[in-house]
Amino acid sequence: MGFGMTIHTNSGEVLLNLTKPRSGITTPLLMEAQALYSALAWCHEHSFYPDSIVSDCNVLVNYICKNKTHNLHLNLFVIEIKSLLSYFPNVSLSYILRGANHAAHCLAKTALSLEQEALRMNPSVQT
Fold first, then answer.
1. What is the reported pTM?
2. What class, spelled out in words, does domain 23-109 have in CATH?
């Protein structure tokens, strides 16, 4: 399994693409939660403070935004995700259609063939 993340400016310029492989087998919903958690953790560790976070997993976004608790397996991830979201006080979490999230989806597929995290940054970005 793997996940992909892309960071854009408000004008749509790509700042960073990240692919990260994950070992193990899990349900698609839990993988989406792991991917969101990993993306948030990466942003926090690298001092990226996004204004907006989008996911193409409507079930996960609704679960987090509506404070649902009926899925015991998902609850652990949601607690950790909400904890990380607290580091980004102005961030909004929303759903995006999978077709509009093509770059992250392709990056996740790319991660399947990687053994470690791969990062491609816009050359003009300084970290």
1. 0.74
2. alpha beta
